[in-house]
Design a protein that fits this description.
125 residues; alpha+beta; 68% helix
Length: 125
């Protein structure tokens, strides 16, 4: 089910990128808000009181909010396309973070007494 959601989300982003005439600055909107969405969901992921949908939505809020503040502060007239790209990027980054955090496990342990570092990688089947 999650793979189907990820595929639909990818198709939605690809379709809107194809239909929207963008310049190179628009790519930065998606990348920055996607990074903020990824970080926001990663911080919320360990919360036991939220379900996955809430983690994705709440994790995307920093990217959407900072994008809205940036668009509000722009000196030039900006269209709604920039804000749409901010929302798409933040939700995509947040969803990707949730998917990876649910499926994969990464951990780094370092012991100074034995001067060793252990990297653990796991996958949930």
């Amino acid at each position: 089910m999650k793979k189907i959601k990820l595929l639909l989300l990818t198709l939605m982003v690809a379709q809107s990128a194809y239909a929207y005439e963008y310049d190179e600055k628009d790519v930065y909107h998606i990348l920055v808000s996607g990074t903020l969405g990824y970080a926001g969901e990663s911080l919320l992921h360990s919360s036991q009181s939220l379900n996955d949908f809430e983690k994705v939505v709440y994790g995307a809020i920093p990217g959407i909010a900072l994008g809205a503040i940036k668009e509000y502060g722009d000196d030039k007239y900006s269209d709604d396309g920039d804000m749409v790209l901010n929302v798409i990027g933040a939700l995509s980054g947040s969803y990707l973070s949730n998917y990876l955090n649910n499926e994969y496990f990464f951990s780094v342990e370092s012991k100074k007494s034995t001067k060793s570092t252990k990297v653990l990688v796991g996958y949930n089947f």
